[in-house]
Each structure stands twice: as structure tokens, then as C-alpha cells.
Design brief:
The complex is a heterodimer of chains A (538) and B (151). Chain A is mainly alpha-helical. Chain A has 16 helices and 12 strands. In chain A, the strands form 5 sheets. Chain A has a 3-stranded antiparallel β-sheet with strand order 1-6-5. In chain A, helix 12 runs antiparallel to helix 13. Classes of the chains: A mainly alpha (538), B alpha+beta (151). Chain B: GO terms for molecular function: ATP binding; ubiquitin conjugating enzyme activity.
Chain lengths: 538, 151
């Protein structure tokens, strides 16, 4: 990394800046041998013809910023550039559960009740320790009764499984010799009914109570009834509740079938990111990169706002998502999409249990008698039908490019699956070591990341002022990245192991080239955002 | 119908042998999970002297899942919409397998006796109810006379 980079700390200054156009075109000083012989690959253009191998990326800013010009750092060192940095860990669900237990153990001395009961209390309070503590200090007995840990009347019946020679279960109405279960409340039902009942309730991640009253089943009861460790399933569902509650600190990896959770330590720094028009990207242990702020995949060069506006516009365009927009509302508290498929306007969010009014999306509690204000609630978004045909056409054009690259990325993903076989073939046929063959998976990763960046560069281009010079530079940069990506993609089509090994240097160079083009495009896009040339709006 | 759970048979038997006053529930001869229900309007309510027809269906998972109930007779009530759907906690979140068909029907009868316009299903009705309760009650009476005639 030989490039030098100067960034003023006060970036969003809109002065009469002099932009060093060459900077956006220049490339890192890579070993160019790899693609020199590639005739259809042309990174030169009129504007950077004499600066191809010189590797300076610099922004020259007007004199008013000159005091900041002294700061120089490498492209990779984001801290040195004064950009915020996120500290995070990647956790498995087991680790999360251990963490939850640890938090409970810390709380236990205050409550002085068994850990099993602590789990129930926290489930009842949606893992909000503050709320639980508050109510606990107010009225301990009330919390215990409300959470189903105490019966109102103290019957002297032991909870557990019993065997009755002749028992009639009131749930299934079958009678005969039966194993039964009851809590201290003496509501006794047969084990089969209880099994069925618990099975249905496990995915909810909520406390499971007696079928006839509010008394809660402990995890050990559940496991005894089910004959396995089903309570683990309940706890897994409960982890979702925990993460939902602490969504500031924890986020699920959004990739399909990925169960990792990212835990961020310094969440206060999150608010720093938008100012620099960058996003807090995190990478899970499966190497999935996503944005901790908005939960989308990596959407550089666009920032979260670009991604958000773009995705929402895209949704509005598609018939399916049109339906979602029409028929669902986001829970005002947790943002989960809710479809109202019947019932009254008193909504209770399934995921965060927030109670709100469907019409005005206000808290139901505050509603009281003044509910009828709601029918007078008017929607303001009725008069934006005057969208000109031209802008729609422009949008469709950009959207098509966006989705084309999305599809290509998916195809590359499939390609990535076959790379593993190629690596194995290399090891067996050509006899090279595992470590030596790692250039293949690395190349495919570079390819997919390049495509993703490319994909998200179209929203940025769409929202940018097309007459501005910097936008033109951005578009040229896009073009260069397209070429770099397609080149690498072509290289990855090679099937024979011997040929792959011969081209090893090519793989290295082209992957590195994609990376550097990607960085240049991201920087350029960030510049568009910082200078207010790219303004995402619906 | 051999696979009909004992619970449903028992409940049906009891509904016939020991009927709830003002409520009838007859299983359909082709489908013993489907009931034709009538509920008499409670005394001292706008629905008094009306007989309301409902349908009730016991899903496969009953009693783990709540029965599905719907009014067939037109009714002017803030918690019942024009399709006859009912906003009642025991039919949704507060269902428990320990509840029965008869307890559900009793709850519906109680809902007729005490409409709850603060938790409405039919917004327009609920609004009328709040704005001018007397007029709304009069309208409910009128609808009862018009549509809920005893057969």
C-alpha cells in the first residue's frame, strides 16, 4: 500500500474546492505485469494517461482547510484518518446464552431466588433488566405473582409428574391409567396433552404457563415433560427476545442460515459514522459482511441513507412489496413488519409486545378515551403522483443495472461453491498445498465484494447531480470497476487445474486490482455524499 | 368421523344434554367440527329479544388452538365487524386449552351485554358509540329487530 491520502477532518465543507481529477483514476502501485498483456483491459483514459503507475490518491482542498492538510495516513488506516471505528465480537447462540446466564448470575444476589426463576422473570420482562428491577423494588410479591412464580393461594401440592391408575384428563377427555403433570395450582392434565401444548408454545420464546392459570413452568419441568432438553429450544427462541431488546448492542447476521450474532462494544461511536458518510460494517465468522446500522449487506459506496431510500423506492416499484407497503405497517417500536389480517385496531406486536393503535401508530396506553382522534388522522402521501415519466425511466434504468449486478453476484456465489472442488482438484492433481491454493477462494471473495460495491454504486449514481464533474468521474470509476470485475470473473471460469496454477499470478493481480478499484470507487462515492452532490430522496 | 377426538365428542354431548341458557350449538351432520350456533341477545341490552346466528369451527389442533367463531346475523356492535368477525381476547391471545366451546359462547354473550367501544373492531360503529351512545344503542335495537328475528 503505497498510496497516500489526505482527508480533512471537517469533511462536509462545501467550499470552492479544487478537485484533483487524476486522483480518482489513479491506481495503487500494483504489480502490473499481470494485466499488462491483457489487451482488452484498459484502465487508461484521457484524464489519467500519464499517471497510471504513479500511485498518489490525494484530495487537494481549498486553503481554508489547509490546516488539516498536514494529516496524512495510509488508505487502510481508518483510525488515523479520524474516522470512527467499531469494536465488535462475533458470537454464537451458545455464547449469547452463556452471556445471558452470566448477566442473570450477576443479578441473582439482588433477587435471591433460584436461577431458574430468574430466567422466567427476565422472560416475563422481555429481558429488560431495568424495568424488572424497578418493579421488583416497588412490589416484589406482585412481580412474582404476575410472572407466575407464586400462586395467589398457597396450595400444598408438589409440582411434577405423577402416575394415576384411573385419570380423566379435562383437555383430551381420555381416561385410564395415565401419567399426569401439575404445578402447585393442582390443575392436573395428562402428559400427552402437556407435551402437545408445550410443543406449540416453544417457538414463541415466552413463558409457558399452566394450561388453566398463570403459574409458570420452569425449564426443568419442560424437560421432564418432554423427556428431552426442549427447554433449549425455548431458550433459543428467547435469545431472539434478548437480542431484540438489546438491539443496540447485538445484531443477527442477516445472511440466510447464518446464526452468528455481532456484539458491538462501543455503540456510542455508531452515531459518528453518518457524519463521514461511511457505514459501520461488521464481518461475522462466516465472512458475511453487513452494515451494523441498517442490517443490510455491504452497501458501499452508498451510505445507509442511500441504501434505505433506494431499497424503499425499489420496494415501492415491485408489486409484491407494494402489497407489503399497503397491507403492513412497521411496529413503531421495533420496526418489524406487521400485517393486520383481522381483529381490532388494538395491536400487540408479536415480536416486542408493544401495544399500539393501527391507525395512528401511537402507544395504545396514551390512547384512553381519546381513541376517536384516529379516524381523523390523515395520510399526507396522496399527492406525489406527479412524478414525471423521465425520472421514472431514469430510475428503471438504474434499477435494472442494480439488479443485473445483484444477479451476477448470486451467480458468482454459485461459482464460489465450485471453487472448493477446484481447490481440491489442485491439491490432488497438481500436488500443491492447501495454503498455496488459497488464492482461489480469495479471488472469489474479491469478485463478490467487487460486484456488491458495483451494485450499490448505482443508487449513488442515481441520486447524484449528473451535471457535476465529480459524478462523471464516479461513473468513469464505475466503468473501470466493471472491467476489473468482469476480467476476474472470466479468469475464474478456467476449469483445468494445471491452467489455474499457471495463471496464479493473474489471479493475484486481478483480485488486487479489483480491490483497489473498489476502494477508489468507494472513496469517490463518499466524496459525492460529503460534498452534497449525491442527495438521496424519494 | 371415527377420528373425532373424545374431547369434542364430550363437549358436544354436554352442549346437548346440559345446554347453556340462551345458547344453542348444533354440530353439522357432515362435519362434526362445524357448529351452527344461536345466541339470544342478553336482557337489558340493545340486543334483547334478538336471536343471533353464528358459525363455530374447531380447527384440527383444537383444543390447543382456539375455535373459530363468526356472526352470521348482521349486528351493530363495536367489537364485531360487518363480516361478523369478533374481537375477543379468549379467541386470540388469551385462549387456553382449558377453555371450552361453552365458555367461549358465554364470553360472546357477555360481549353483547357489555360492548367495549374502547377496543373496537368496527371503527365506524365504535365512533358512533362514543359520539352518541343513545343513538348508537337505538340503531343496535333497530338492527336487532330487522335482522335478528327469532325463527
Amino acid at each position: 500500500m503505497l498510496s497516500e491520502h489526505t482527508i480533512p477532518s471537517d469533511y462536509d465543507d462545501e467550499g470552492d474546492e479544487f478537485i484533483d481529477f487524476e486522483s480518482y483514476y489513479s491506481v495503487e502501485d500494483t504489480d502490473l505485469n499481470g494485466f499488462k498483456d491483457d489487451s482488452d483491459f484498459d484502465i487508461t483514459s484521457d484524464m489519467n494517461s500519464d499517471d497510471e503507475s504513479g500511485s498518489r490518491i490525494s484530495f487537494l482542498i481549498s486553503t481554508q482547510d489547509s490546516e488539516n492538510l498536514g494529516k496524512k495516513s495510509s488508505l487502510s488506516g481508518s483510525e488515523e484518518r479520524g474516522l470512527p471505528k467499531l469494536n465488535y465480537n462475533c458470537l454464537t447462540t451458545d455464547q449469547i446464552y452463556k452471556l445471558m446466564l452470566q448477566r442473570m448470575e450477576n443479578l441473582q444476589p439482588i433477587f435471591n431466588i433460584p436461577l431458574e426463576d430468574m430466567i422466567i422473570l427476565l422472560q416475563r420482562y422481555g429481558w429488560s433488566e431495568e424495568r424488572l428491577l424497578e418493579q421488583w423494588t416497588e412490589d416484589m410479591e406482585k412481580v412474582l405473582v404476575a410472572s407466575g412464580l407464586r400462586t395467589a393461594k398457597h396450595d400444598k401440592i408438589k409440582r411434577g409428574i405423577k402416575l394415576h391408575p384411573n385419570f380423566m384428563c379435562h383437555i383430551c377427555c381420555e381416561s385410564g391409567e395415565k401419567e399426569t403433570f401439575s404445578l402447585e395450582c393442582a390443575h392436573e392434565y395428562c402428559l400427552d396433552c402437556y407435551k402437545h401444548y408445550i410443543q406449540d408454545k416453544l417457538p414463541d420464546g415466552k413463558i409457558i404457563t399452566c394450561m388453566n392459570c398463570d403459574l409458570a413452568l420452569r425449564n426443568e419441568d419442560i424437560d421432564k415433560i418432554m423427556g428431552d432438553n426442549s427447554s433449549a429450544k425455548l431458550m433459543l427462541s428467547s435469545i431472539k427476545g434478548f437480542i431484540q431488546k438489546h438491539s443496540n448492542h447485538y445484531k443477527w447476521c442477516p445472511f440466510v442460515d447464518c446464526n452468528y450474532v455481532i456484539q458491538v462494544g462501543n455503540i456510542s461511536s455508531l452515531s459518528e459514522f453518518p457524519r463521514f458518510h461511511i457505514s459501520p460494517y461488521v464481518i461475522c465468522d462466516n465472512k458475511h459482511k453487513f452494515c451494523f446500522q441498517c442490517g443490510l449487506e455491504s452497501h458501499a459506496p452508498g451510505d445507509c441513507q442511500v441504501a434505505d431510500v433506494w431499497v424503499k423506492t425499489a420496494q415501492a416499484e415491485s408489486a409484491n412489496l407494494n402489497w407489503v407497503l399497503k397491507n403492513t405497517k412497521e411496529c413503531p417500536k421495533c420496526g418489524v413488519n406487521i400485517e393486520k389480517n383481522g381483529g381490532c385496531n388494538h395491536m400487540t406486536c408479536k415480536s416486542c409486545a408493544y401495544e399500539f393503535c393501527w391507525i395512528c401508530e401511537g402507544c395504545w396506553k396514551d390512547h384512553g378515551g381519546s381513541y376517536y382522534e384516529c379516524t381523523r388522522f390523515k395520510k399526507e402521501d396522496k399527492n406525489d403522483n406527479v412524478e414525471s415519466k423521465g425520472s421514472l425511466r431514469k430510475y428503471t434504468f438504474y434499477y435494472r443495472l442494480f439488479s443485473e449486478h445483484e444477479n451476477s453476484a448470486k451467480l458468482d456465489w454459485n461459482l464460489g461453491q465450485t471453487v472448493e472442488q477446484k481447490v481440491r482438484a489442485l491439491q490432488e492433481n497438481v500436488g500443491i498445498s492447501w495454503i498455496e491454493s488459497q488464492f482461489l477462494p480469495e479471488s472469489i471473495r474479491a469478485l463478490i465484494e467487487g460486484r456488491t460495491t458495483l451494485k450499490w454504486s448505482f443508487p449513488v449514481a442515481f441520486y447524484s447531480d449528473p451535471s457535476h464533474n465529480l459524478t462523471k468521474i464516479f461513473v468513469d470509476n464505475q466503468f473501470l470497476l466493471v472491467n476489473a470485475v468482469e476480467d476476474l470473473s472470466q479468469l475464474l471460469q478456467i476449469k483445468e487445474p494445471k491452467k489455474i496454477m499457471e495463471k496464479k499470478l493473474d489471479f493475484y493481480n486481478k483480485a488486487r486490482f479489483v480491490k483497489s478499484r473498489e476502494n477508489a470507487l468507494i472513496e469517490c462515492g463518499r466524496d459525492l455524499l460529503c460534498k452534497g452532490i449525491c442527495i438521496p430522496q424519494k | 368421523m371415527a377420528s373425532l377426538p373424545k374431547r369434542i365428542i364430550k363437549e358436544t354431548e354436554r352442549l346437548v344434554s346440559d345446554p347453556v341458557p340462551g345458547i344453542t350449538a348444533q354440530p353439522h351432520e357432515d362435519n362434526l367440527r362445524y357448529f351452527q350456533v344461536t345466541i339470544e341477545g342478553p336482557q337489558q341490552s340493545p340486543y334483547e329479544s334478538g336471536v343471533f346466528e353464528l358459525e363455530l369451527f374447531l380447527p384440527d389442533d383444537y383444543p390447543m388452538e382456539a375455535p373459530k367463531v363468526r356472526f352470521l346475523t348482521k349486528i351493530y356492535h363495536p367489537n364485531i365487524d360487518r363480516l361478523g368477525r369478533i374481537c375477543l381476547d379468549v379467541l386470540k391471545t388469551n385462549w387456553s386449552p382449558a377453555l371450552q366451546i361453552r365458555t367461549v359462547l358465554l364470553s360472546i354473550q357477555a360481549l353483547l351485554a357489555s360492548p367495549n367501544p374502547n377496543d373496537p373492531l368496527a371503527n365506524d360503529v365504535a365512533e358512533d358509540w362514543i359520539k352518541n351512545e343513545e343513538a348508537a344503542i337505538e340503531k343496535a335495537r333497530e338492527w336487532t329487530r330487522l335482522y335478528a328475528k327469532p325463527k
